[in-house]
């Protein structure tokens, strides 16, 4: 197998990033944010907007975790589709979160520009592109097509743009308001915007968290409020969340550029996901494909804190990659990262100890919900404002 290495990091902007210094002495701030992924950086931005002094810490670099290693999909809504969320949580709650995620795409696009946030829409396909493998795949595609229709009906009922799709990749839905990005570039862009006004430290693993005090090897942070914005492995830092959140490994690979179509068009017009969202792929502007999935085929072994890619899952992704590409692919990078899951698909926003709030558990889709949850965690800690009931607390 290709040695593990994150495909997004080959982007010259990511490769050329300057590292932030680690925390080297004890400091004080109004707010300490632990975790500088997309969620933690949103908490940093919100605290700055409120005129507070902020210290941000990451165990590795900015976006060292899932926020720099994910599919880069900016799909409105939580991990489950709007019609399923409405059935489980009530239409009002599901719609409120859906609309906030749509606003989040717009806010990210305004902040970071079209070079980072590509507003291309997204395609949900029923089943993988190409020939059906067997009768079970055919039956599943029929079920998924019916589910696409339910999703379309619910979106239309609420005036949200959606179109039927039937084309070279198969059948499903096109959602024109969704977007895509290189996730590492999103996080680095936010860190560059907030960095001059906040004190952000890389390579500063937090060893323990108490009310008012965060301990690292080289110094402590004293802060009135501590926001723990860590998705995967949250229960390692805060063991009281064990059972409420569970860490899984999600795996990806990237390829050499795919051959363009006859008029030079990319094979994938926008981010595309299939098989109930288990497999997902996008192409960057250079034509490289970034694809992940297969967790459902290996669910038991993927409940792990380990982030090493495995031959089984990578083999499945390579198979799916050839289906998405319509031809065999040449793999250049393979990687994995941790993500937090919750039993009812509601992300967590909760006060864990007095003055210590945490958010995480985005069930594999935290690029938009994560920042919303992080701001809700801040509002819970600072104002005592209860989060919306689309969050578990
Ligand atoms: C392979 C994969 C594909 C995915 N695809 C998508 C997708 O396409 N769209 C989508 O919306 N979501 C996707 N997700 C989920 C999404 O990546 C995450 O939900 C989201 O990135 C979570 O961001 P975060 O900032 O909350 O947490 P993280 O990205 O996990 O960031 C937490 C940060 O905390 C730091 N940290 C951890 N412990 C400590 C400590 N003790 N001290 C200091 N720092 C610490 C880590 O180094 C890390 O940088 C995917 C996830 C994976 C793994």
UniProtKB/TrEMBL annotation:
Domain FAD dependent oxidoreductase per the UniProt entry, residue ranges: 30-377
Gene Ontology MF annotations: oxidoreductase activity
Its EC number(s): 1.-.-.-
Keyword entries, A-Z: Oxidoreductase
InterPro entries in UniProt: FAD-dep_OxRdtase, FAD/NAD-bd_sf
PANTHER family linked to this entry: SARCOSINE DEHYDROGENASE-RELATED (PTHR13847)
Protein name: FAD-dependent oxidoreductase
Organism this protein belongs to: Jatrophihabitans lederbergiae
């Amino acid at each position: 197998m290709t040695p593990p290495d994150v495909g997004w990091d080959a982007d010259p902007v990511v490769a050329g990033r300057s590292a932030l210094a680690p925390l080297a002495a004890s400091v004080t701030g109004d707010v300490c944010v632990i975790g500088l992924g997309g969620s933690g950086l949103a908490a940093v931005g919100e605290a700055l907007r409120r005129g507070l002094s902020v210290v941000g810490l990451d165990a590795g670099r900015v976006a060292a975790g899932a926020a720099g290693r994910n599919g880069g999909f900016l799909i409105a809504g939580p991990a489950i589709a709007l019609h399923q969320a409405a059935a489980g949580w009530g239409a009002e709650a599901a719609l409120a979160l859906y609309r906030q995620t749509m606003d989040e795409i717009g806010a990210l696009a305004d902040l970071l520009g079209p070079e980072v946030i590509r507003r291309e829409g997204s395609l949900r396909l029923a089943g993988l592109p190409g020939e059906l493998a067997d009768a079970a795949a055919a039956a599943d595609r029929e079920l998924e097509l019916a589910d696409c229709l339910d999703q379309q009906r619910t979106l239309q009922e609420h005036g949200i743009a959606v179109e039927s799709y039937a084309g070279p990749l198969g059948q499903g839905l096109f959602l024109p308001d969704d977007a895509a990005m290189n996730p590492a570039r999103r996080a680095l862009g936010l860190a560059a915007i907030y960095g001059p006004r906040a004190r952000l430290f890389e390579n500063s693993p937090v060893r323990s968290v108490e009310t008012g005090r965060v301990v690292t090897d080289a110094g402590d942070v004293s802060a009135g409020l501590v926001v723990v914005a860590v998705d995967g492995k949250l229960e390692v830092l805060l063991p009281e969340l064990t059972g409420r959140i569970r860490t899984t490994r999600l795996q990806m690979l990237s390829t050499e550029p795919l051959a363009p179509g006859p008029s030079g068009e990319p094979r994938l017009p926008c981010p595309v996901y299939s098989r109930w969202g288990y497999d997902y792929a996008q192409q960057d502007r250079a034509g490289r494909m970034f694809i992940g999935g297969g967790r459902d085929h290996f669910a038991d072994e993927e409940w792990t804190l380990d982030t090493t890619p495995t031959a089984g899952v990578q083999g499945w992704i390579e198979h799916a990659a050839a289906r998405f590409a319509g031809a065999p692919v040449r793999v250049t990078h393979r990687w994995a990262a941790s993500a937090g899951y919750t039993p009812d698909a509601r992300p967590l926003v909760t006060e864990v100890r007095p003055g210590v709030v945490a958010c995480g558990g985005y069930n594999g889709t935290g690029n938009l919900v994560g920042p919303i949850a992080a701001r809700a965690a801040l509002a819970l800690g600072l104002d005592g404002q209860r989060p919306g009931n689309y969050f578990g607390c």
